[in-house]
Fold each of these.
Amino acid sequence: MSNLSAALDQIDQIILGKTYQIRLSVACLLAGGHLLIEDLPGVGKTTLAHVLAHTLGLDFQRIQFTSDLLPADLIGVSVYDRAANEFRFHPGPVFTQVILADEINRATPKSQSALLEAMEERQVTQDGVTHKLPEPFFVIATQNPQQQIGTFPLPESQLDRFLMRIALGYPDASAERALLAGEDRRSMIAELQPKLTVLALRELQQAVRRVRASDALLDYLQALLAHTRQSPRYSNGLSPRAGLGLLNAARAWALLDGRQAVLPEDLQAVMPGVAGHRLLNANGQMATDEDIKALLREVAIP
């Protein structure tokens, strides 16, 4: 756990004033999920992805999503080998432990969907042959707000593959002053040392699964799910997969605090990141933080 605390502290030194978002990001990765960071350009989305991969000691590839990106540019292609008289598969950049899908909603839906199998099954299929992806395998995607020019909204099936969606927002005045007066953040990342090994990270992921959730905690989780399905405040409810995601994320959040049991406060902490992009309010829009706060107020803790 000391190495995990050191990893969080190191990320905090690069991404200033965003401790909550950093903890959500690390909890997402410990829970084995994928992370979507949605915000305006220039607030540190790509930097956060870089420092997460570097600090966790994982292989990293960045793909800049553009309107002319093809699925083969992600997955790879089969090329005919004349000497061997057969086709040989040449893996694409998706074959890495951490892939940064930068500005994912700049690409067309066809290219966006190329990540679906990889994110869900940890494998890709090319010409009828299945290729396993490395372990661990994380997708960290960034996207710009949908109202910006040149964006293609992610379909619901793609959004649901992300365990969490977070926004960084502008830094507060003190953090921005430290940013302006300090070193270039990208230069600082190059000098950082990994705080975890791949083996240690996988052990932490296994430890997350062992964090205990009591019957009372499961009652509370089910009450939250049922409320989203019954309340007129929402036009759709949270699915069973969303419930599993909430539980796994809450287990990871508890582990970050050094606890072996989930508390209601853990569910409340991860609820905005896990539920915000899956829950639609009465206007058919993604639930805002205020919608999530209202949900938590309306459902009593058993």
Amino acid sequence: MSDFSSMPIGVDLAQLRTQAKELLQAVQASSPEAVTRFRAHHPRFPIASPKLTDAQLVLARELGYPSWPKLVAAARTATMGAADAFVEAAIVGKLDRAQALLNDRPNLTQATIYTACVYGDVDALRRCLENDRGLANAVGGPRKRPPLLYAAFSRIFHVVERRPHLLETVKMLLSAGADPNAAYREAPWEDSPLPALYGAVGVLNDAELAGILLDAGANLNDNESLYHSCDHVANDCTELLLRRGADPNSVNALAHQLDSEDPEGLRLFLSHGADPNRSAPTGGNALHWAILRRRSVECIGLLLEYGADVEAQSAEGVTPYRMAVRSGQRETAALLEAHGADTALKAEDHIIGALASGDASQLKTVKTNHPEALTEALAQHGALLAEMAGDGRTDAVRLLLDLGVSPDTRGAHHGTALHWASWQARPDVVRLLTERGASLEIMGANFGATPLQWAIHGADNNPERPWETFVETFQALMEAGAALDPSWLEEASEKVRVAFISFSSSSVII
């Protein structure tokens, strides 16, 4: 089995990527040497149109690795050493990489206090602390953090048989004097320290681990943990924090809870004192945010039950009722009307509502009565296309395109409609946009990524959308001609990498 010991000395990832690009250019130019290398190492040679993935596969196999990702993993291990590579793999969730390192070196968990902590090797940790209890707060490892932070962020917690050992590891560290409020700072959010409790509730979603940290004195109101407890479908951690006394109004946690459809979680917040009239991130109250996120009438009803003001105005002076009409949420508008909302509308509201609903007949009627209002509305609401694309409202997207709105018009986070359709896994909208000429390689969105990169990121970070819709979105983008850089998959989950097998040889991706 190849491992980091076979990696050429002095070779790093940047050099490997450069070598792969140079090899691709050479084979595209029919260089005899490059053709010989491809013939010797590529399973599908000759290839009509070689891609970067093909060159990367050839380079990997020349160096003794079955695939590019395995070569990348070996290069990283060679750069940082097996112990640090094992710790890094554990905290970023590359459990297959961590297990491969452990298979090659069965005693690796005993190498340092940090390897012991991410794996839950209690005996190794005990020996470390018996020799020096000060190690409980010693900063080190690949990210220069104390041991508790490695344990509390270790994705090996998700391996059922390791979880009890990791819980015991955390208890042992705390008993030895580890700071339960240990936190790290990371660019570009240096002003927002991420503590061990955040690891427990926001990353691992483990209420028992969170309880252990709280019993040891972890700060309930650390500005991160309650907010990020809402990242998960299960509400155990959210319930624990609120029951222990976390302030539901100290951060924008209520708004974040409304980022997903979860009436049970919403009731938890409201029943523990969350204020539905507290200003939402973009102005207005929780009703505005819930309507923006297209929450169900059940969620809207809960906000009303707990006193949300139906006449509150957004930063633009729009009431929840007008906002519901504008976004085509007719059931929500009817519910607000039943609770006494003022139903007076402006011509602009009717037009935007027709556009959001994709209702061409209604739009025609409004245009007849207010011919100048459509042009003005489109000019003032340029982000509407991206919003409708992210919501999967195909008819609305088609109507806006028919009216001459550019498919590359930008919305939130400077993302185009194709960015948002990709991140929200709306394959039908992706196909429509690409058919209408949306740019597949457009940059300039926040996070500096193409629509395909947004789709890859969404597949691992957008739990609201079914996995199957992401696979279909990948397919729609690739069939439309989106370029795939395999480096985008290096930090993706294994299931995302496997999903791209149909677009390249399996050995390239996994």
Amino acid sequence: MELTQNFVKAKRPCADGYRWYIRNRHNGTDYQHLLNSLVHEGRITDAIWLLDNFGPTDAVLEADDIEADALVFAGTIVVRGGIHVGGVLRAGQAIRTGGGVRAGESITTGGDLEAKAGLYCDGSVHVGGDLRVGWSVTTTGALHVGGVARVHRDLHCDADIDVTGDLLIGEALAARGNVRCGKGLRAGADARSEASIVSAHGILAGADLHAGTHLEAGWGIKAWGDIEAGGAIRAGEGVEAGGVIIAGPGYGIHAGLSVRMDDWHASARIRATEPPARLISGHWAEAA
């Protein structure tokens, strides 16, 4: 795709960026060529602006491995090995790798991100489609996924996690920020957040489930270990733990919020090794 002077000017670029385009257009006005030139000269912000304003393409970048200071590509990136980028990694469409993905600043895709090995980012990760990772995910910034997130091993995030679909983790979840799921949350081991955990559907943890503030699910909540929150525990249906259920000081446990009261005995059961304190609603069934 060729970007003409009038086409670029119509998007109202900053004065410095427009001057750069005028000076460099004699080298070619191909869209991806301009993105590559901007990145080569360290003008990463301008390259991102260009991609944001002119959108993705159907182009495909194929390679055995990629190692670069930064990479901004308008189409899909397909790598048989891994990707290691010191700064920004940005794709207008999908990223697919046979190995791992590592970036020093941020990772952003307009479509899916699939890595057969692990994913590490010393910044934020924004995936427009589904996220599929064969090993673990570690990110120091926020994680946003526009579809379903599947992580085969652990997920560690030092900020907020927002997933539009299901969040499915093979082993442990550890987050320092809020965890929000547009559908369900499932972890094979511990699921812990220093802030809140909110799921529009259910929550299932293979070991302990812990939220630093509120714990909330539109359906049921179940953990094979303890369930503990620093704030309130709210569930549309029941709450079941293999250990104890504990709400924060001054807060209660609210189950059956989406169930008729006369159906609580069947659809809003509370099960644990001992009756929880401050049980506001729901039906205490028996010890787990």
